[in-house]
Amino acid sequence: MLETGGLDLDKFEAHLANYQAHVKEDIEKRLAFIREQVDGPGLGGAVVGISGGIDSAVTAALCVRALGRDRVIGVWMPAYSLPVHEEDSRKLAEAIQLDLFTVDIGPAYDAILPAIEGVLKLDDKTRGNTKARLRMTTLYAIANQKGYLVADTCNRSEVYVGYMTKGGDGLADFNPVASLTKHEMRILARELGVPESIIVKPPSADLWEGQTDEQEMGFTYEELDRLLITGETNPEAKKRIDYLHRISEHKRRLMPEI
Questions:
Q1: Looking at 13, 88, 158, 184, which residue is catalytic?
Q2: What pTM, to 2 d.p., does this model score?
């Protein structure tokens, strides 16, 4: 146990307390990174897919601070999405002064799904991944037209276990949050003024009704983040985490070539 501010903390809690103490410095580092990625090549700005969740909220808030609201486009892309996610997306836009636009991808999803299922039936996960890829197609169309870059919103926890869609939310031009665990993202979110309803909401990729990250992964974010931060977690969770990390390696690398 470590002592921090008069409290006995384990390694995990002590790490988070230390991050909280230095969060303002971390914000400045990430703002500089965003400016380097966008201003360095002389590009116009950034496009961020807004889901109503914490990761896209933090990414958008950082981009607005780094570039100014007139150089950041937020895009809410529902496909039979729950109303709470739309409500939280709008709360975020108001809180951080984000220009938020809506592109309903439901009709495109409805059109492409029967064509694909004329070849083979898709399960819920594959259907959800198809939504994610349609969302990325939308973001790149806007970025292409504007001369902007697409900002990735995947955090360290998700990337480690491959909890992102290849060709979907796992595809972008730069990522200002890839080194942050989900628990660090919550600390950063509060510092950036992200609405509390977004911070405390159970994380979900909004791929099908009732879907949550932790239910789909088979372990909690605390179990995953403890492993990433301290190297320790409960044995059953570690077994599952190690398995997902191994089979998702292809998502973290450029495609093999010969």
A1: 158
A2: 0.93
